[in-house]
């Protein structure tokens, strides 16, 4: 869908758009209605794909915050404004970041949406953060049941750091002016350990967090110290959540002992088929194409994807394989309708 299609609309135009695109506008069960979820979507291009993701997870009881990268094209932001204008529970982040790879700005983008979502008048239960190339593998009802199962815990990938990842937090890093690249200031500029004895673990930028955990992250003074400490860390989003998931004071935290380690194969928040894992025989081959060493799924990946327990997967793109998205959309919608009729 071209960005120009998603312009600000009148109420009548919104109704026609919502109907034409097939949005689910009523809760499909009391269980889902009484268990609202908050979503953050961080994106910088292709408003049509962001809309497609939103439509796949949209339910009127949930709430959605979309963070549009500050460096995005004006047409992209205007398209998202038009999209959000049609829904009372879809907002754009009130503060925008220029997101740079491996920089604190990626973490700050999530914080901006979290703050807006906490202030939104919906008593949501869990927060799930996504990017524009994610897509669900489960229906809303299935996601709700999983969240009820893990409550009050969080779903956070958390694993002891490798030497390479220890170096990421052991030394300060700076952006090269104007080029948006990272360099390390390793000589004579070692960082102190994380404040307040926060344990050192590695994980993913994408997690499932309880409302209590999110509120703690946004308000606790110790965590504000950790945020400040993380600002010159390389890929702080791959440290911050994993470490806090083991911090004893954090709601739903788990002990920092090996028995509770959870790697990317075990964490069910998000499934990513890295090229390395394919070469090692841990995942089957990619039927789409690789982008930044990550498989952009093709239709041939669907049967494998649907066998997995993960709630979401990355990456999808209509520019790579439209059929993969069409088929997944159809399968999930049919499952959604069947399950609602069985209730």
UniProtKB/TrEMBL annotation:
InterPro entries, per this entry? Glyco_trans_14
Q: How does it sit in the membrane?
A: Single-pass type II membrane protein
The keyword Glycoprotein belongs to this UniProt entry's keyword annotation: yes
Q: Which UniProt keywords apply?
A: Glycoprotein, Glycosyltransferase, Membrane, Signal-anchor, Transferase, Transmembrane, Transmembrane helix
Pfam families found in the cross-reference section: Branch (PF02485)
Subcellular localization is given as: Membrane
Q: In which pathway does it act?
A: Protein modification; protein glycosylation
Protein family (similarity comment): Belongs to the glycosyltransferase 14 family.
Designated name of the protein: Oidioi.mRNA.OKI2018_I69.XSR.g13708.t1.cds
**UniProt lineage:** Eukaryota, Metazoa, Chordata, Tunicata, Appendicularia
